[in-house]
C-alpha cells in the first residue's frame, strides 16, 4: 500500500508517521460527503481535529479526514448566550471570541489544544470546569443512518474525560457542531491551585483567562518546540477511604473531593513523587516542569511514548497502588487500540 501523506505536522507529538489518504473537509456537508462513503465501504477512517490527543504508533493504512469547518453563531435571551460552533473551530480561539464579546464561562479552559469538535468526545476540562458545565447540545453525523443528529448535553452521558462518543457511539458518529449555553449570571470558578488567590467578588473572566494562560505557558511545553499531547494521564479517582489511607502515608498528597464521594488525585503529583519528573527513556521523557506531560525530545516514535507511559503507570502503581490511565488515543495501522509497545 502506498503511504504518501505525512502526518508529522498534524499531530502535536510530531510523530513521523504516514497515512494512505488525507482529505480536508470544510463544512458539515463535506463531512457527510466524505465520511459516509468511507464508512459504508468499511475503509479505515480517522477523524482528525487538532491532532493534540493522538499517539501514532504505526503508519495508518486508511484515510485521515481532517475537519476544518468554521463558523460561530450567537443568540441570546434574558438568562444566557447560546453559541452554535462548527467542529473545526480552534478551541482556544473560541474562548478568546467569547471574552471579546462579553460572554463568560469558558475562561478556565484556556489554552487546551485542539478543536471544538474534539472537545465533547472526552469532555475536556481544566481548573475546575469541564465541557459538560457549558455544553447545551452536540450535533453529529450518524454514520449508520446518514443523518445529522442533535442530542442534549444530558444525552451525551458526560463523565470525567468520558462521553457517549467514546462509548456506544464510538466509531459511529462524527461530531459536526457543538452548542454552548453561557449564563449571564456568571460566577467565577476559583477552587483550583493558581486561581485560589483571586477574590470572587472582584475577579474578572479576563483575569482568570490570563492567569490560566500564564500558568499553562510556564508549565506546558510548546508542541512546536517540544512535541507533546498536553496532559498525558487522567487524574485518577479513588474512594474516600483509600484517600485517607494514602494521606496518612503521604501527608502532602493532592486530592479533590467529588460530589459522588470519591476523591480525584493529582496524577502529576503522583508521578513526581514516584521520582519520574524529567525521567528519560530513549527520545521520550517526562517533562521536567510538569510531570503530567510526556514529551518527544526529538526523533521519538509512538512506541517510545507508549513504552515510557507504561513505565510511569507501573512505577506509580507500585508506590501508591493507583493505576493511571492514558488520555490520548493510541492509533495503530488499522485504527485505535490500547496502550502497548
Notes on the protein architecture:
With 341 residues, this protein is α+β, with helices and mostly antiparallel strands. The chain has 3 domains: 5-67, 2-Layer Sandwich (Uridine Diphospho-n-acetylenolpyruvylglucosamine Reductase, domain 2); 72-212, Uridine Diphospho-n-acetylenolpyruvylglucosamine Reductase, domain 3, CATH 3.30.465.10; 233-325, UDP-N-acetylenolpyruvoylglucosamine reductase, C-terminal domain (Uridine Diphospho-n-acetylenolpyruvylglucosamine Reductase, domain 1). The chain has 6 helices and 21 strands. Strands 6-7-12-10-11 form a 5-stranded antiparallel β-sheet. The protein has a 4-stranded mixed β-sheet with strand order 1-2-5-3, covered by helices on one side. The chain has a 4-stranded antiparallel β-sheet with strand order 13-19-18-17, covered by helices on one side. A hairpin with a 3-residue loop joins strand 6 (72-76) and strand 7. It is an enzyme of class 1 (oxidoreductase). Belongs to the MurB family. GO terms for molecular function: FAD binding; UDP-N-acetylmuramate dehydrogenase activity. Cell wall formation.
Kindly list the characteristics that best describe this protein.
341 residues; alpha+beta; Uridine Diphospho-n-acetylenolpyruvylglucosamine Reductase, domain 2; Uridine Diphospho-n-acetylenolpyruvylglucosamine Reductase, domain 3; Uridine Diphospho-n-acetylenolpyruvylglucosamine Reductase, domain 1; five-stranded antiparallel beta sheet; 6 helices; 22% helix; 27% strand; MurB; MurB_C_sf; cell cycle; cell shape; FAD
